[in-house]
Amino acid sequence: MLTRIIGLANVVVITIAIATLLLLPTAGGPTVGQAATVGTAKPSGNAPATPEAEADLPSSDRPPPVTATPEFAKQVKANELGLVPAIMYHRIMKKRFASIDRTPSQLRQELEKLARQGYVPITAKEFVTGDIAVPAGKFPVVLTFDDGHPSHFALDGTGMPKKDTAVAIIYDVARKYPGFRPVATFWVNRQPFGLQRQDDQARAVRWLTDHGFEVANHTWGHPNLAVLPDKKVKEQIVRLQRLLKKFGAPEGDTLALPFGSMPHPRKIARAGSWNGTGYDFAGVFLAGAEPSVSPYAKNFDRGAIQRIQSNGKRGECRKWCSEYWLEWLNKHPGERYVSDGDPQRISIPRKSAGNIAAKRRAQLNAY
Questions:
Q1: For 56-76, how does the pLDDT look when each residue is reduced to its tens digit (9 = 90+)?
Q2: Is 196 exposed, middle or buried (0-12, 13-18, 19+ CB in 10 A)?
């Protein structure tokens, strides 16, 4: 694994890249942090989707479970204490303006690579709560999109995901690779998907959550929480929680820290209250530099969960972005999380039994 120094260096790189991104114009949309004009990337579309069009969307249903015995777990080489990649995306742009931008083609290629290699998407909430339903012998991956950018989600005039948005590309890959479950987590700020009108924002959030996606908290205004006083940190989190609740989103269980920066004390990122409203997250995600340990491992820190920036292997990404780490996991299959297909059991090689969290020991299925 990378050293803590490299991890901190990656956070610095992410901070600089996001700061640059915030100052750049958005092609085909509003400047990040600026309100969209009415109608820009409007997810409600000009008309509701027809039943036929909706039927064409691949299902986000979870795969049917199996009952894993030690013999079966050994057969599929299950290792549910292995590493899980949580991949971090920002803007999806035809022309990249910042180093963390990805083009639609780059996103499509990476998702297809994941599908070919046997990865199955789960949401951040499913991951942190240990509610991992992935077919036996396959590997979970958490697809995460920060900032609620217009390039992540919009609906076209027929009420279907707009071409070359992240959601449309996820569905395209799921059609091509039926085992690739079309889900992801979108961490949003006060104007989800660049929309100014709250009724449009609400429709966008409901459409996504109705189709199996997670929409969750990335703070109200995307500040650097490390430099804010406690009260302001809590206000940033609570205001966004209230907005999502107003939109009818399911209870938010995850938070992505803007810039990956931890507030002080760090415990207020996980739980706290402001102006009569409390929050208590199951998981808080960093900008990251490496795959996350399993949520069943005793060293899993749900208050500081690692992610991997989606990028190639040039420059600062030569050893800690997605291309590097996906290659590394393929070369070290014994280090990767491999599912047993049974959400009720945690299957691992017997030699690793000492690494399971105490509260999970009743689910242990060692071989």
A1: 999 999 999 999 999 999 999
A2: middle
Fold exhibited by the domain 4-64+81-339? TIM Barrel (3.20.20)
Number of CB atoms found within 10 A of residue 312's CB = 14
H helix intervals, 177-225: 198-210
Percent with pLDDT over 90 in the chain: 84
What does the alpha-carbon distance between residue 217 and residue 252 come to, in Å, rounded to a whole number? Answer: 7
- Amino acid at site 101: D
Length of the chain in residues, anyone?
367
Give the type of residue at 329: L
Q: What six digits make up the tokens of 144? A: 């995460």
Given a cut of 90, whether residue 32 has pLDDT beyond it is no
Tell me the β-bridge partners of 321: 309
Q: CA-to-CA distance for 100 and 258, rounded, in angstroms?
A: 14
Segment 124-174, tens digit of pLDDT: 999 999 999 999 999 999 999 999 999 999 999 999 999 999 999 999 999
Transcribe 300-324 into DSSP letters. --TTSB--EE---SSGGGTTTBHHH
Q: pTM here?
A: 0.91
* Predicted local confidence at residue 53, as pLDDT: 81
Domain positions in the chain are 4-64+81-339
